[in-house]
Amino acid sequence: MLILALDTATEKGSLALAEGDRVLMEYGLEAHGAYLTRLLPGVEAIFNRTGKQPADLAAVAVSVGPGNFTGLRIGLATAKTLAWSLKIPLVPVPTMEVLAAQVPWQPDPIGVVMDAKRGEVFWGLFRGPENRPRLLEGPLRMAVGELPGRLHAPMVLTGPGLEAHHDTLTALLPPEIAWAPPDLRLPRAATVARLALHRLESGQTANPAQLVPTYLRPAL
Prior knowledge:
CATH superfamily of the largest domain: ATPase, nucleotide binding domain
């Protein structure tokens, strides 16, 4: 089952092509303005380099937020157009679930922190005893200073908000709260594809005409 996955929820996005649980290729989108200039060429490059064709796809998966307003809008528009034109299912995957899934087999709760600008964060809480996390709370938007009241050790925190608010959170959080390694704190399209496979098999697809991003706040 071939799935094309797009993640444009943060400033460092990616594309991935996966066949079942095997990632055939992942393609980074990190340059300034990459979503406008490299998203569609990246899709073409993935097919060219893997020898696959768009007609081989079983589904298109997309990270739906919360996250960067412009990035989400471009990513969803692209995914919806591909799914509609190829007449294949569109699989939405919450961005916070993607981040939690990158800390798999974790016995402690997983807190996901994303930067919401203006001194705020997006927050979600998950349980991840297996490789598919289960949502316990969120997604919510709150002031950074409110975050410690949501935390109870033992817990693992992840997400790009840890870097964006590093100094503030370091001063506020107790040492018993663990931080995921930096290389796990950004969503990856390969993880979107992995989660999408289970969702597709469970019939959790979306109508391209009705799917909207999870913003949690107006555009800035």
